[in-house]
Structures are given as structure tokens and as C-alpha cells.
Specification:
By secondary structure, the chain is mainly beta. 6% of the residues lie in helices and 38% in strands. The longest helix has 16 residues. Bound molecules: calcium ion. Calcium ion (CA) binds next to loops.
Length: 257
């Protein structure tokens, strides 16, 4: 099963990409191709920066950031054109094109459910783009539907991640940034395309997970969203699935033979 997409690693790769841009091109010019198109957004959230990124998800374990563009966008609605060059040597046959509006101002190193995250071609399941040649007309819209709820943690529980997946059994599919919570309280995922989702949470460390509609995840209740739907009350509760440590008395030392 793929790991959650590591945006901290993505930020590190971004730094490398940025450094690379300052140097002389070392590869053959014929290896560089261009993806271009437009990202549009008709929603209500405002962010400082719109990022557009080309991702190689071929690796089971890792997602590689091949190129990224950062654009200062004003209040929505907006249409932002982009053109990204990258070296297609050794990449997967098909790539993904993602974009997110950084709503909470935390930058590309910290993408989560509070940011509006979308991808080409604007549907619940990302479309694959051939990597063999330059592509134009890669136009897509950021998603408009949202899920809100409360996550209830068990006593002593650490950070958890919250995700929505098109997999009906709540198994992670593809990737998308996950919301995080370290205590009981509200959570949000503000960028979802229309579709049917299984909403779940998993511990950042450890394997315990819980699902909307069934804390055991045996029979999760799926959430179907229309294009602009804002669904409230998608609550997640760990209290019945996290084992409670038994009270221990420590070791009792006998003073008697
Ligand atoms: Ca952010």
C-alpha cells in the first residue's frame, strides 16, 4: 500500500529543483518537455499562492516532484495559466499534474486538508498524462466540495491523519494531502471533487484506524458529494477502537522470605 504523500520530502525536493534552476542545464535539451494549461477556481477560499506541480507516482513508496510553479493569485474566481518544463529522462510513462491553493499560508512544505488541492483533469480520480512529449491544454478546475466533522481521540493518543478516498473499503488510493489532528476537535477537507468517498483516520505512528460510520472500518458509511456540496458532521471516533492500557500496580517487592 502506498505511503501517505510526504510533503516535507516534497519541499526538500523543491529546494533541489530550485537550486537546479540556477545552474547550467547539464542534460540534453531534447530531454526537456513542457506541460502547459490553466488552473481555474470558482470557490470561496482565498490563498496567497497557487502551486502547480508535476508528480511521478510510479514508485510504490515515493512520489517524485518533477517540476513546480508558484503563482500569486488574487481572490477567486481566477484562471491561472502555467507552463512547466522538466526533464523526462527516466520518469514513468504517465505522470500526474496537481495544483493546490495554499489557503492557510503554510507553503508547499505543509499541504493539508485546509488547502484546496486538485489535479488534472478535475475529477475524483486523477487522469494520467503521457510523459513522452510536451502537452498543451492541460486545463482543469480546483475542487469545490468540502467535508467537515469532529475527530475524537482516545486518551493518550498522538497525532492522527484524516483522509477521504474513492476506495469503498477506505484503503488509500493514489494520494492527496491528509488533514492532521493532535487532539479532539474539528477537522476539514476543503478540496474534494464530486464523487463517493470513504472518510477515515489513521494514527501517524501505529496502525490503528477508524472510519466514518463504523469505527472498526468493517462497514464504513460512504459520503457522496455533489460538485459544490459542503457536508458537515462527518465525525470520526477512536474511543472504541484504541485499546486502553490496563492499570498496572508496578512490581511489588516482598520483604518476606
Ligand atoms: Ca497550507
Amino acid at each position: 500500500m502506498p505511503r501517505p504523500f510526504d510533503f516535507a520530502a516534497m519541499a526538500m525536493i523543491l529546494a533541489l529543483v530550485t537550486i537546479g534552476l540556477g545552474g547550467s542545464p547539464s542534460g540534453s535539451a531534447a530531454d526537456v518537455i513542457t506541460y502547459s494549461g490553466t488552473v481555474s477556481y470558482q470557490g470561496s477560499h482565498t490563498g496567497d499562492t497557487l502551486y502547480v506541480a508535476i508528480l511521478d507516482t510510479t514508485g510504490v513508496e515515493d512520489v517524485t516532484l518533477l517540476a513546480v510553479g508558484a503563482f500569486a493569485v488574487g481572490a477567486p474566481p481566477f484562471d491561472q495559466s502555467f507552463s512547466l518544463d522538466f526533464d523526462n529522462t527516466g520518469v514513468g510513462a504517465f505522470l500526474l499534474l496537481a495544483s493546490f491553493l495554499d489557503v492557510n499560508g503554510t507553503g508547499i512544505g505543509d499541504v493539508d486538508g485546509a488547502d484546496v488541492f486538485g489535479y488534472y483533469d478535475g475529477n475524483a480520480i486523477p487522469a494520467s498524462i503521457p510523459s513522452g512529449s510536451s502537452q498543451t491544454g492541460l486545463d482543469f478546475a480546483l475542487p469545490l466540495a468540502e467535508i467537515h466533522g469532529t475527530v475524537t481521540l482516545a486518551p493518550g493518543q498522538g497525532e492522527v491523519r484524516i483522509d477521504a478516498t474513492t476506495n469503498p473499503a477506505c484503503q488509500m488510493e493514489g494520494f492527496r494531502p491528509q488533514s492532521r489532528a493532535s487532539s479532539t476537535g474539528p477537522y476539514e477537507i476543503i478540496g474534494l471533487y464530486p464523487g463517493t468517498y470513504c472518510v477515515y483516520s489513521e494514527e501517524s505512528s501505529g496502525s490503528t484506524r477508524t472510519c466514518y460510520g463504523d469505527p472498526t472500518c468493517a462497514s464504513p458509511v460512504l459520503v457522496t458529494l455533489t460538485e459544490t456540496e459542503v457536508r458537515m458532521g462527518v465525525d470520526l471516533d477512536y474511543t472504541s477502537v484504541v485499546p486502553v492500557s490496563p492499570t498496572t500496580w508496578g512490581r511489588v517487592k516482598s520483604r518476606y522470605p
